[in-house]
Amino acid sequence: MEIIRMMVLPILLAAHGLAWSGFDEGLAAANRGNYATALQEWRPLAEQEYAKAQSNLAPTGNGIVADGMYWKYNGKQILLLGGMAYGEPHLTPKAELIRELDKLKAAGGNYMRMTMVSVYPKTRVQGMYPFVKRSDGKFDLNQLNPTFWNHVKILFEETQKREMIVQVELWDQWEFYKGNYDETYWNPKNNINYSSSATRIDTSLPDKPYKISPAFFYAYRDHNKAVVLKYQRAFIQKLLQVAKPFNNIIYEIGNESREPQGWNDYWAKYIKSNAGKKVYVTDQREDYSPDGNLTYVLKHPVMYDFIDVSQVGMRHITTDYHQKHYNDFINVRNKILASGIKRPMNNTKGYKWVRSWGDAYKGGESVSINRLWHGIFAGLAGFGFHPSHYEADSRSGSAMMPNVLRNIKSMRMLEKRVDIMRMSPSNHLLNGQSADEAYALASGSQYAVYFTGKADRTVTLKRSSSKNIKLVWLNPDTGKLDSPITVTGTVITLQAPGFGRHVAILSSDSAPPHPPPAGFLSDYANPEQTKAPINGIYPTGKIMHI
Asked: Which of 17, 161, 313, 518 is spaced 20 to 30 A from 108 at the CA atom?
């Protein structure tokens, strides 16, 4: 399988003007398991036209590189954690952007989502567009707006300085519904470059994008929309040009994609053909189960280099929805492993709510924080919180809120004590837990068990050895590490030392306890930290040896 992957890469890295003749045939053969035919189709392309791209075949240690189920950056394996308050961080004044990046960096954050939409009502800076807006209010798509693109460059520069990864989202279906579509430059009524009558591109759309598939998304194949495709390509080409000098960019074709799959495939191929270097691409399908159309992305590892699971499991509204969400992540992970080609799983926008099939929402900041923990414990390579716009009552997101930053920092504290990226989801080692009570990671003599605070906060952990091992409790909401305790036995009963979230860290090399990092509580004070005792008594941690 690695041979197939190595043969495909030079094709995907070809220069502008790449003809994909032979590629699709090889891809179809590879998906059928006929790798000999795939090599027969791909080898001539690699040998005849793409020698210049051969230098991009192997990771050089410079920049973001997929490394099995996780990522490497500049040669070092990294766990992606973060999320910005705004989904369009490039549309933030530079001084403010730098403050926000430094704040995220101080908490251990290194990952964010950037959507290329400029018409959202909560965008930090209104009225900054990729195209020039004329005095008559119309856009001229032949003129790129240098101010906008300079802001994109600034974001890429400042994040690369801080070794932060930016997941750039090209298209968003939510730009193509009633309110936003009335403002977008892509609407024929808002630009001077094409008309609705000539292109059959609508000038108005329903209030929900999922009610129709806008004609805009068929420009890649409809001859009467060739002029629209021209400007779409110019838009993406400019993005690639600005991004080329930077090594911290990965790409996502769509947000909650419901567009025809051919549209997403077209842009995946276009990016890989025109980036001028090796790039990583995915597509975030509007998918509420791992057996839905996310399956297409899973089945096309050449086209889509990593998996975005942000929409997986989003409709669970039962009392054990966190457990079901975790189970869905495990389902996707198992499908990746079964394919024989490991790929990272990212969740670029962890929500704070759960939703039914209607419009009923519930949840809160704690929901998104639990999703961080059970997501990483399910094997996610990256987790970013959904934008919050710094609104405590924001329905969707909690990124950059105080308790979120504190839990990111606590995840980094865990990472210093066990090698998370060498561990595997290991709930099978637990016994006695209720739904959504505890989640486990394990590798060799290292174990971590995340307690959500539900049920009696007590489970048993099975080990393969009875040798002594150090146990340390971490409270992720305060950053406090308790003193290490030596435990022994092949079965250990763990009881969390209090209400709320706790993490049991077991390792033969557990670091000594220390107080929270300087400024931890003062910078990220948690108003929810004080919990009521039971019958006047605060529970304490207990260790029982069997």
From this structure: 313
